[in-house]
Design a protein that fits this description.
Pfam families: mRNA_G-N7_MeTrfase. By secondary structure, the protein is of the alpha+beta class. The chain folds into three domains: about 1-105 and about 150-180, Rossmann fold, CATH 3.40.50.150; about 185-410, no CATH class; about 415-455. About 60% of the residues lie in helices and about 10% in strands. A four-stranded antiparallel beta sheet has the order 2-3-4-5. The chain has a three-stranded antiparallel beta sheet with strand order 1-9-6. Strand 4 (about 45-50) and strand 5 (about 55-60) form a beta hairpin. Helix 8 crosses helix 10. The radius of gyration is 29 Å and the shape is flat. About 20% of the residues are buried.
Amino acid sequence: MSAQGIIPDANEIMKRQRAAGSDTFGHDVYKITFLCDTEQPPLFGAKYNFQLDGVVDYPKFLVQFPTLIKLALKHGLRLVEKQRFDEFYSESVQSRRGLIEKIQALETFPGQSQDERERQQNVGEYSHAQGHLDQKGASGSRFQKVGTLSKSEWEASTLYMFFAFQKMKTNWDKNGKPGQAVQSDQARVVKNVLIPQGFESYQKNYVAFVKTLKIDADENEMGRFAKTANLALGETFTKYGINDATSMLGLREEDKTIPLKNLTIKTAICWQALLEFLQHTESDVLDAYIVDLTAFCNYIKNFADTPTLCNYIRQLAYDPSMTTDKLQNMYFQSMMQVLLEIAASYDLGDEVGRENLKKVLAEMLACGDLGEGNVKTTMVIFERLVGDVEERFRFCVDLINGILETSRADVSNTSRSLVDEYLEKNPDKSLQMKISSLRLNIMDLKEQEMDKVNKKD
């Protein structure tokens, strides 16, 4: 059993209010007028008047979706999907094209009647449709019409978001709260016997227990280890609580993070499992354990910039073998993956935090030290940070150009001082002569290149 629906997206509404700089904003198709404080809107009762295309005109209230998730969970409903309307449309347009045509959800461009064609004379409102037809015509297509919405109608549509909740197969505890889902006999044995016995054999030490599950021969095994540990920890948190876990992880009270020097792959996975457990079962107290998004962005940046702040990774660097370098990089990427997945679990309703996260992720993509899994998770987060496809495309193009421009820069002189310093300490005169000869050749090649450029001009 599932419950699906659409509601106005509170984050999108507040984003547009901030951009407009006014409590009233919109255009001919929709108009919103806030009837409450917009600087600090209340959690409940944030009232606004909503007008839509001259048909709808009545007061509504902002629905804070994280609060809705918590309320639904208390009544045995878990969130299975949440998407902005533009995301939902992009995913569904191909598979539901027949339904869209059947209910005539789009208008024909150019219009079939004189009135429709006159209304579509506003070039700015339908430039995207005309551009699509022009592109099709240039490729030899015979199609001369297209189904579309005006830009104003699309802006009104993208005020909404889609959601789906699913009824959990649960046992209800004595306090009327939903418990764990009904499971198979094998799963019940693992949950009630194997995991508790293994956990208790390590004196109920969460980090030591996770260490026993650890396999790290390659990236795939690291991924399986993380998933297995996460599931096992969820069961132990349910049975034994979280108080011991927070003290074992050493979460700092001032910023709710593990000090970087103490961060390991085991503590990172425990941290992630703890936050996921709270999100799904004790969401009322989650704020007491989760760090502010901007502060968490700084935490990720510090780890990305200087991984050796972690004693765990720094110790791996002491072995001079090439194998250690590869292992060190694998652990860095695995720990970064956990941190990125924690970042992906944020609601991203904080505009300042969103911008900081976008900046940090862009810098990390440019550095080139991320693994394939890191990049995939980063791009999933970017899809939520930058909802508009065209804006996201431009952002990625700018990012790629920035990386390429850096690589195209003249780096011929960047290592000169290091080479000179090495030569001063090296008594081998023949090596000095070879390097000097190579430098002269480079200078000659540069002069030849400039001569050819000047002749071409």
